[in-house]
Fold these 4 entries.
Entry 1:
Amino acid sequence: MRDKKLSMLIEGAIMIAVAEVLSMLPTGFGPYNISIGVIPIILFAFRHGTIKGFLIGFTYGLLKIVLGDIQGVVPLQIAIEYSVPYLSLGFAGLVGDKIRQAAKRGDKAYGYIATGTIIGCFARYIWHYIAGVLYWGHFAPEGQSPYVYSLIVNGGSMVVTTIATIIVLSLLYANSKRLFRLNV
């Protein structure tokens, strides 16, 4: 039992490291940013479930804060934009059992991968939307409401991130279902 916990913690640390490396790659176009660093966090949530996904996501958000990879004004804003949104990616783990079972049987799980990714990314988006309204709304073009501005900027980034994540995780699943099982 202890070995399983230790291997899960090591895997979580590796996923966080991979997420941070991926987040350093330039993936923005216009006002939108594809956050490919979410891919290993969501994969971890698929493999280990929601609660452990919350833990790894939260730890990843804290790492971003510690590394200074943030644009923060006040502590509440930093929590709303970093620790809580990455924690929210753990919601992807709600369908983790279905994905693991399908992988074990060799069945398709693309619908579950898409569903889990949408759930996790949308949960993360809610927090970025709130921060966009509260802290970044003053960047809205003249005459545009901060609510609409945050919806467009954060919503657009969420949509492209979600699509990219679904594609990458589906390709990984198609080529190695073992990645989605716990007993690799």
Entry 2:
Amino acid sequence: MPGETCGRALICALVIALVAVDQANAVMSMEQIQKTAATIRNTCAGKVSADIDVVLGIQKGEYPDDPKLKCYTLCVMKTMRSFKNGRVDDGMMTKQVDMMMPADLAGFLKESIGVCASEPPTGDDCETTFNFVKCMYRTDSEHFFFP
């Protein structure tokens, strides 16, 4: 399937980027982070047919009750390998934040991850990830980041 191939290629590109960053023992620049986020955003928005303007509203704390937006958050988190077996994988998220984000931002994000990953799953993966993302924004909107 074309979409499946694209998804695999995206995951491969992310893994290569993470390995390269890890080997360099450095974090990504904000420009690199934004480019990677845009790639993930466009791929996942297309995959679940989410309106890109609604998706962009996440960064501004706009969370309408939109099933496509909810499944967009799941797509992003699965792409980043931070959601598995119906739960947020806070360990993987923390590892990725440490590898990719500048230290001044990483600390804030890890605090929010710790708070929000403890929320119980809803039984619907899209709803669970959507609630997690909303919690991250509520916990620290100033340092919030989500593709």
Entry 3:
Amino acid sequence: MLNTFSNETIEALLHHRSIRRYKNEPVTRSQLELILRCAQQASSSSHMQTYSVISVTEPDKRRAIAAWAGGQRHVEQAPVFLVWCADLHRFDQAVAGAGGQFEPSLEYFLVATVDVSLAAQNAVIAAESMGLGAVYIGGIRNEMKKVAGLLELPELVYPVFGLCIGVPDEQPDLRPRLPQEAVFHENRYNRDAFGQTIEAYDKTYHTYASSRSGGTKDTTWSIEMRGRTKYPPRQYGDFLRDQRFKLDDGQEDQDD
């Protein structure tokens, strides 16, 4: 049934994979501008457009960010490296210029984070349609304050993730996704089949991991997710508060 509706866009989406190795070929300025135009056409809450994108081209800055992100060499090597920022600074300036006053609540924080994520996904789809590859770099949040200082981010702006883009020099296997019944619900959140769907997915993921490693990796999705919980939490609450982001709902408990 799916093939009945298949087209180039759907095929591109179904074959997405993260690319970390790139050929020594440039991404042209025209390509980058078109990618960013596509990013700007993403949906945005109330047309607020609360994001900014910073292209990092200076080698020293690339090296610093790569180190802070956990030693990810592709941050240094990719033809294009973009830092996607949630940005309420521009919105604040516009409101003030119109004679208003802005209080950055948790809702606005969430809006800006969603806005930048939607825009970046549009950019990835556009890049892949041109034969390019990309990978998100969430590791920049390891040292959010340092990244912000390096890029001279003003108040009400924070770096959400990086994005490497270039001509692929690898063709990794597609990583299997959870069964659709594990993520799609009708009318209510249904936990009844989770045990079965996770068990089935663990078997699928085990086969994938084993084949990718030549049989040396004995793991499942659940085991890898357990490993994720052992990572030390990223500490950036104080930095975000310094940037004027309010991380509570602004409501105080009141006695009856």
Entry 4:
Amino acid sequence: MNRQLFVGPIIHSDPQGRLDVLQRAAILVENGKIINISENPKPGDINADYVRVLSAGQFLIPGFVDGHIHAAQFPNLGIGYNKCLLEWLETYTFPIEKKYADSAFAELVYEAVVKRTLTMGTTTACYFASLHTESSLILAKQAVKYGQRCLVGKVNMNHSRKDGYCESTKESIAGTTKMIKEIAELNSSLIMPVITPRFALSCDMELMTELGKLAKEMKVHVQTHISENLDEIEAVTTAYKEYPSYAAVYDAAGLLTNKTVLAHGIHLGDSELALLKSRGSAVIHCPSSNTCLRSGLCDVQRLKDRGLKIGLGTDISGGDSSCMLNVMRAALQVSYHLSILTPGYTPLNYKDVFHLATLGGATALAMQDEIGSFVPGKQFDALVIDLNGSNGPLDNLIEYTLENRLERLIHSGDDRNIVEVYVAGHRVK
């Protein structure tokens, strides 16, 4: 099936975050790539091997981009929100991640993660795995099997730990290099490696510097955490007294590039924002986990005003849902709370979070030329949304505009309203 034609209403964002709404359009897809978009097509205008005409109440939006998700933590979803970050890591996260030494366990969990997130409409995910190279590759293979676009990172941690969940610098570099090469050998255009130092408290400067060199040499993405929790920031400041800020530590190691994504960034200082902007690095806003672990309220408007690239992340299992619709709602709630605390503050709206979950997320991952919106030349990663009363929690009791329907989806819809999911033109739900 080389040429596919999708006919119906479409909504996506432009690079400035404005909605582009077409009441009736035709998207022509060839070998997974968008070839042409036309408005108000007539029957027979375009020849295709497969034609999908959306029914009343349905519309197309781009697939969701989850910019920060811990696949290895999936079994812990919904557990441990009585603790804050550093205690939560010790009590729940590190023990579950140790289990991925068992490849059978990794296969069980990672299959579930990929299938579940695809069902939720996540067509692109930026995954943290665990320290284990072989099980990290299992995650990549599961994504290939089920057709999800993703970045997969083997976690790096060389600071010694009593529980043994750590590695030497040599082991860390060797495992990461092996993962990069073996992902390339999968020969899938959907899967990319991402270098993944957990955070500055898990890695010493030698390891982070070697990882920075590897990222430059192999031309791959980098992901890590930054300024999530005040105790974490204090510990980083104490451990790296010679550097003026948390961001400066990563910069000294060569880890801040235009393909770097930094999760959280709640408490970044002005000088750090300027540094990240100058390097082209992105912040992934994780409102659910920031709330569940009581790390703080991230001011996304401040990050936007400083010109940073920003995406959204579920951050499971710090976050309490693998559904990007729930993360969009959490981002709105956090912004509303900031507006309550700060008179005159303008909160985010549904258009803003829709952009962050689609083209904004693609831009954060330096993939804006490939995904995130419906533009000729991009991959057809798309969701068919159905807000008819028989699907999901919404009842249609009056007539709604197309923009109203998107607004209702974001504020009150769920994964039942996502009836079809396409990645590179392949239907995966």
